[in-house]
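In the laboratory, one determines a bound structure by crystallizing the protein with its ligand and collecting diffraction data. In a computational setting the workflow is compressed into a single prediction: the sequence and the ligand go in, and a structural description comes out. We illustrate the idea with pyridoxal-5'-phosphate.
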Amino acid sequence: MKINECYFANKNYLFSEIADKVEHFKKDRLNQKIYNLGIGDVTLPLDTKLVDVMERALKEQTHINTFKGYPPETGYDFLKNAIVCTYAQMGIKISIDEIFISNGAGCDVTNILNLFKDVTAVIADPTYPAYYDSNVLCGNDVILLPLNKSNDYKMSPSSLSTDKSYLIYICSPNNPTGATLSHDEIEKWVEFANLTKSIILFDNAYQCFIEDNSPKSIFEVDGAKSCAIEIASFSKCAGFTNLRCGYTVVPKSLTRQDVSLNSMWRRHQCTFFNGVPYHIQKGAEYVLSDEGKEICKNNIEYYKQNAKILRQHLSNSNFEILPSNNSPYVWIKIPLDMTSWQYFDFLLSTYGIVCVPGSGFGVGGEGYIRLSAFAKREDILDACKMLT
Ligand code: PLP
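The predicted complex, in C-alpha cell form:
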C-alpha cells in the first residue's frame, strides 16, 4: 500500500502547532495567566433562547412520531429556505437546490478539491492556511499572490496568464489581514475567471464583520454564478465553532466541460458526507430568524468593539497595524528584530499572550502577527496594558 507522501512535504497544521506550544508552556509555568488572542475561536456563550430551540429539537428525537434518522445529506429544507430568504434580503436570487448544508466551512473549502483534476490553485499570501495545506496535501500546483503594502494587501489577477484555468481562493475580509475586496475588485476576478474558465472559491466566513459597502456575497457581482462557489459558516457569526454548521452555494449555472458542478457536489456530499444533525440545523435556522439575527448582532458587536479597542490602543502605542474595520483580527507588524515565531515565543513567555505568528499564514506573513478579537473583553484590556 503506497501512502501519500505529500503529507510530509507540508509543515504541521498551524493551529495544532500553536495549541501544542501553549499546552507545553502551561505545564512549565503553572501560575502564568494565558491571554488567548491566538487561534480565533469565539468565547461568548450561546444564548439560552438558541439553546432552547436546539433542546426542543433534540427532544423530538424521544418520540416515535418525531424521531429522525439520517439527515438529508445536503441539509433540511427548512434551513435551506432560511438561507434562500437571507440571500433574497440581499437582493440575490439563490434557489434551494443550490444550497448544501455542511458541518462548517473548513470541510467544504478543502473537500471541494475532490471535484477537480490537475489543479493550479491561486492563493493569497498570507491567508487562511487550509487553502494552501489542502492543495499541497493533494499534490496540486500552487501560485501564491503576495499581499503587501504596495498592493494594499489585495490580490488581483493582473500577474496571471490568461492561457490556463485556475482554482482561485478569495477570502474577503481576508483572514488574517482584514483587507476586504470592493465590488470592482471582485468584478475583476469574476471577469478573469469567466474568461479563463477558472473557478473562484469565495470564502465569506467573516462577512458579518463587514461595516462598509464591500460585497457580503460574491453573487452581488454580475457573472459570478458562472464561475463562483460561495462557502459560508455559522462559526464566527453565531458562535457555532463547536456546534458545527455552514453551507456552500454551488450555482446550477456553474458548469465546466459541460458538466454541472452542482450535480457533482451533490454526488460528492452524498458519498463523502452524511449530513448535519437535525437539532444543529434547527439552531442555524433560528440564527437566521429576526430574533436570532438580533442576538447574534450583539455578540458580533462585542467582538467588533474588542477589535476597535485593540486597534486604537496599538495605533496609539505606535504599532504598525493594517487599518481594517471589517475584520475580527488585527494584523500587526512586529516592532522588534524577530521572526514571527520568535515574537510569538516572546509574547507568550513575557506576558502569557497567545498570538498567531504571521508566517503560519504563508511566507508573506513573516514579520507580522495576528491578534484575535474573539477573546474575552478583560483579556483584550489586559493585553492592551501589556502591549505598549
Ligand atoms: N475559512 C476561514 C477564512 C476561516 O478563518 C475559518 C476558521 O477560522 C474557516 C473557514 C473554518 O470555519 P468553520 O468553523 O466553519 O469550519
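The chain has 13 helices and 14 strands. Keep in mind that any predicted model is a hypothesis to be tested, not a measurement.
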